[in-house]
Specification:
Length: 785
Amino acid sequence: MVFAILKINASDKLLPNITLGFKLYDSCYSEGRSLRGATRILSGEKNGVPNFNCNKDHMPLAIIGDMLSKASVPLARILGLYRYPQISYAAGLPLLSDKIEFPSFLRTTYSIDYESFVIAQLVKYFNWTWVGLICSDNDLGTSGAQLLTREIEKNGGCIAFQEALPIFPSIKSIYRIIGVIEKSRATVIILCCTIENLVSLMEQISFHNISEKVWMGTTGWSTSDFPRRDILTTLNGSLGLAVQTGKIPGFREFLYSIHPSIFLDDPFMKTFWENAFHCVWPENDVYNYTSQGLLDDGSVWCTGEERLDSIDVNIYDVYNFKYTYNVHNAVFAVAHALHQMNNCVPGKGPFKNGSCAQVHNHQPRQLLHYIKKVVFNNTAGDQIYFDENGDVPIYVDILNWQLFPNGSNQYVHIGIYDASSPKGQELKIWLNKILWYGGYSHVPVSVCSDPCPKGYRRAALQGQKTCWFDCLPCSDGEILNPNDDTECLKCPEDKWPDSRKEKCLPKLMQFLSYEESLGYALACISILFCLLTFSVFCLFLVKQKTPIVKANNRELSYLLLISLMFGFLCPLTFIGRPNQITCMIRQVMFAVIFSLCVSALLAKTINVIMIFSATNPDSKLKKLVGLRIPIYIVPGCTIIQIILCIVWLTTAAPFAEFNMAAEIGIIVIECNEGSRVLFACVLGYMGLLATISLSVAFLARKLPDTFNETKFITFSMLVFASVWVTFIPAYLSTKGKQTVAVEIFAILSSSAGFLVCIFSPKCYMILLHPEMNSKQYITGRNVRN
């Protein structure tokens, strides 16, 4: 305050030609002393007389103080009656913001309610969900505990325990609190109390060696100097809030320049000097600098030649201050208000009829009006003003207690809370500056239940606080709600959770493609069998005049081989990404080709029967030989299948669709068969043809002939029937692209069965035993038979 007044008096711009003075009263943390000081100020007498002003000429213009809320409240009640300006630099009681009850009270600090909010934000920032709370057993402590509990619980945290610290030390109560601390899992404990309440508790906590706790304090004690090293050791690594520590240019030099010869009327200078240098002033002459030597008790005489800059900065700290910045702002607020009052233009003033107040003769309420309206930039460049409640903008420093090996401690500035910052950016923490208990750099954990793993939601336990919970996994297709870890969200139908169930990713598109090994292998097999069939066809063309090729209708053999070639190529339409065209072609092509194959086999079988009947004079079928019925069986049976397919395609054709449910986390691109009834009719008709062909071939298998092809047709139809009967359960038990692979395998297997069973014996005789492929050999065999 003295420094600020000297600066103002030395300024040519602020209150020129006006000199400010001051009166200093020490309330000694006592409401009674604070009231006595106020009475002296208001009455102008050492022994104050209430309601009388005995020395108007020496009335202070405003009161800067008190520091504590408990002393500021009674002071503000009296000063409010007279609208006498009062600016406190440390009183944080929320009640003091009530301008009806305290109309003349202002402060350059913030309401303690905001401390609860800032502490709750710190607890949330460090993910502490299980914290202890110890508050003073008074109105301020109780209201602060209630507000702090509400803010912490609003952010998802819980209070592990809440204890009241007696105003007057009680060893029984302290032991009870220590027992609660030792049993609790909470590693973070918030202390909402003042230094005088806290010392006795911290002494016992140090004695019980309670370590590995993070103590978090309010401005009531977080920057206090504790008398014992063991308390400092216990508090090492703790966090605390402090009022803003702004820059005051020139203040450090001013503190180093202090000397008893400069401040002759300062009653505290003598005591300060003796404590700072551990010396004693001669009682008969405080400033007798020539006195030298030791006193009887070993003390040293003060000479006045001691230098303040030689004192350890931990003892005489000229860098960090508790409320100095707020005091500086309070004094300058009064000075700027007086300056505006002094510059008032008559007729344009703020009072009745535009009148102005005289800076040397005004009412307290008039200065109070100017102080409430004042807006200025202090020496640090920060804008200072008071809101409608008499409070300044919220700006809180966050400190970290750090103890050094030499026994000194330091409050390291590790963050700020600036309410004027954009929303969500008010809190700023520099983690690399923090030193936790034990010298660790990682953030301690203070939770009731361990955090749930990724992909698990919190499930509250009945009858317990929200911080007690079980972890339940999110169901398939769900992710953890990023805004609420107690519930899971279902992914959209076309998306699926990642492995950690944190976000929904697009599902993989699955179909049997040529790029993958299975599709590539099936395509190669299909082409190889097609080429093999084509080779057999070429062989038959070359040997078309031989008896084996001519046996049982050479044209039907050609038709069957051509059908098989297309049958082996049919799986190629099943491989690749399904679309509208391939879905319509592949099943129709499969049905028509196999109907053609089976009807050709049926015609060959009937042809064998009719040829045998022609050689039997007693056969009733002999009359049908001339009708050439086998020629009409193939087109007739195939046309019926073609008609069914046309009806199917025109009424409810197959189409490509995205199957979300076939496989978990995968979108299967497949063909929907459209009308399942018509599809069943197409397959049923093909099955009917196969059944008739198998039955006829089975009955004709023992007919006497040199080369009875019905035996091989029977084997081929048995293979065909076996493959497709086995196909049904395999088809139903697979999903996705495996279903398509199973159908392709069935097509290739049944087609290969036809090729091997019917044509391999003929190729064997043509290629390896050409002597058997002659009319003479066949005729000879007939004779022998």
